[in-house]
Write a structure and sequence with these properties.
Blueprint lengths: L7 H7 L38 H13 L4 E5 L2 H11 L6 E5 L4 H10 L6 E5 L4 H7 L4 E7 L11 H11 L2 E5 L4 H4 L9 E5 L13 E5 L1 H14 L5 H12 L1 H21 L3 E5 L9 H7 L6 E6 L5 H7 L4 E2 L9 E3 L11 H7 L5 E5 L5 H16 L9
Parallel strand pairs: 2-3, 2-4, 4-5, 5-6, 10-11
Antiparallel strand pairs: 1-7, 6-7, 8-9, 9-12, 11-12
The structure holds pyridoxal-5'-phosphate.
Pfam family, one: Cys_Met_Meta_PP
Cofactor: pyridoxal 5'-phosphate
Keywords: Aminotransferase, Pyridoxal phosphate, Transferase
Length: about 400
């Protein structure tokens, strides 16, 4: 099926589907074989070569969604990130990354890169000029994440990609928080787009997967390492992910809408001191977000005023769950101070702008009035301290 002129939901539903020629079923058949007859081709079909029928079909869908020539599906977001980075880096090379990164990516760099002889520099903030200043003759890759976790900072994708172009180095972005529904970085000149498909692509908190989308030339390099590292995904999960992506457009757009309404409402709330959401006019990078995003996403953070205890607040929520993961159809919250940033000292957290009252909110598809009511009753319950908080 030609992909070029199709709209988002049509791509989500149809691109890459495998025709069931045997029984004329409505959905792609699932091929679980790990063994295929030799064809007269260079590379045989094998799951770890990322070329089973279901892998190839879903890759076409993801490539179409990201306006890329090629895509590949991995066993996790971290498998996609580590494989993509290491495909373009070797001993003696240097990489420049944004400091505000997903924790797993930060740990991959700080715990593993030294032993591979790969040098790295983290950039505080998201100013493109700071990236340019950090580039050395040995720099091969620059890497960003926007919107970022947990403060939803925005990096100017076009300005960043241009700097990489000028220096002839590979630009990469973790596009997980936006999803392909809200942001297509290749349109702004980014080379390699990475997703934790565990999040919006899966969307139901029941699939662990990753994806990379880029040019055919860059993909050849990534594939050559990927087949050695072996981070492919089971075809059964590939098939489930195809099914999930069919509704990604309508899910994410519903999440955008809910998040927009909640961000406005929370920013008027007397017990909330600040809301971090790129869709709000007072977000410092709202104008950049407007230029590069189709929608502002379902992720936000907000700060409870001092008198509202964050952990008691979370325990008092009845509908919204406390959960580490994000981007499911169900709304979830977490406290960065108690989870992702727990190992930092209070001083380090303060420096990064992570306060004790900060709540990261992954907005789901529930009715927005029910979400407001849940937050309101939780705040009331905390105010009337002594009322036993229900536990999940
Ligand atoms: C979850 C996440 C990852 C890691 O993905 P896994 O599927 O858990 O390996 C990477 N980047 C971002 C922004 C994430 O939210």
């Amino acid at each position: 099926m030609k992909t070029q002129k199709k709209g988002l939901n049509t791509i989500c539903t149809h691109v890459g589907e495998i025709e069931d020629t045997l029984f004329k079923g409505a959905v792609s058949p699932l091929f679980m074989s790990t063994s295929y007859a030799f064809e007269d081709v260079e590379i045989k079909r094998y799951p770890r070569y990322f070329n089973t029928p279901n892998q190839v079909a879903l890759s076409q869908k993801i490539a179409a969604l990201e306006h890329a020539e090629a895509a590949m599906i991995f066993g996790s977001g971290m498998a996609a990130i580590s494989t993509a980075l290491l495909s373009f880096l070797q001993a003696g090379d240097h990489v420049v990354l944004q400091q505000m990164l997903y924790g797993g990516t930060y740990h991959l760099i700080t715990e593993q890169f030294e032993k591979f002889g790969i040098e790295y520099t983290f950039i505080d903030g998201s100013d493109p000029a700071a990236f340019a200043d950090a580039i050395k003759p040995t720099t091969r890759v620059v890497y960003i994440e926007t919107p970022s976790n947990p403060l939803l900072t925005i990096t100017d994708i076009k300005a960043f990609a241009e700097i990489a172009r000028e220096h002839g180095i590979v630009s990469m972005i973790d596009n997980t928080f936006a999803s392909p529904v809200n942001q297509n970085p290749i349109d702004f000149g980014i080379d390699v787009v990475i997703h934790s498909a565990t999040k919006y692509m899966g969307g139901h908190s029941d699939i662990l997967a990753g994806a990379v989308a880029c040019s055919a030339e860059h993909m050849e390099r990534i594939f050559n390492l990927a087949k050695n590292l072996g981070g492919s995904l089971s075809d059964y999960t590939v098939w489930l992910l195809e099914r999930s992506i069919k509704t990604m457009g309508i899910r994410v757009r519903a999440q955008n809408e809910n998040a927009g309404k909640l961000a406005e409402w929370l920013s008027q709330h007397p017990d909330i001191s600040h809301v971090y959401y790129p869709g709000l006019k007072d977000h410092p990078d709202h104008e950049i977000a407007k230029r590069q995003m189709h929608g502002f996403g379902g992720m936000m953070s907000f700060e409870l005023r001092e008198q509202i205890d964050a952990s008691l607040f979370q325990k008092s929520l009845k509908l919204i769950k406390s959960s580490m993961s994000l981007a499911g159809v169900e709304s979830t919250v977490l406290s960065p101070t108690q989870t992702s940033h727990a190992l930092l000292t209070a001083e380090e957290r303060e420096k990064q702008g992570i306060r004790d009252g900060l709540i990261r909110f992954s907005v789901g598809i529930e009715e927005v009035e029910d979400l407001k009511e849940d937050i309101e009753q939780a705040i009331l319950a905390v105010r009337k301290k002594g009322v036993a908080a229900p536990s999940h």
